[in-house]
Amino acid sequence: MKYLRLPIILALFICCFTVIGPGSFSAAVAEESKPGLEDFLRRVEENSASINSFSCDFTQVRYLTIFPKPVEFSGCLS
Predict the structure, then answer these.
(1) In Å, how far are 3, 4, 13, 29, 63 from 26, measured between CA atoms?
(2) pTM here?
(3) C-alpha distances in angstroms, 32 versus 1, 35, 43?
(4) Mean pLDDT value across residues 11-37
(5) Is the dihedral of CA 47, 9, 65, 72 positive or negative?
(6) Can you tell me the distance from the alpha carbon of 74 to that of 5, in angstroms, rounded to the nearest whole number?
(7) Which of left, alpha, beta for 36 (phi over 0: left; psi -120 to 50: alpha)?
(8) CA 28, CA 18: separation in Å to the nearest integer?
(9) What is the mean pLDDT of residues 25-39?
């Protein structure tokens, strides 16, 4: 379980950085965007500015050929 924590945190960090990342990304998307996307991105950036931490429960199901049944991992990401 300990070894799953770092990849999950890195993946979430990359996703968050992409969504609320630097203004250049938002501007590049907004230039070729649909109406309302620029306003949506601005609201996401404003609302996420106050987020200092997050946590969530997760369940991961792996279908491994060496086991007859699926292997299930669950925990809390914080």
Answers:
(1) 33, 31, 17, 5, 38
(2) 0.35
(3) 42, 10, 18
(4) 60
(5) negative
(6) 11
(7) left
(8) 12
(9) 65
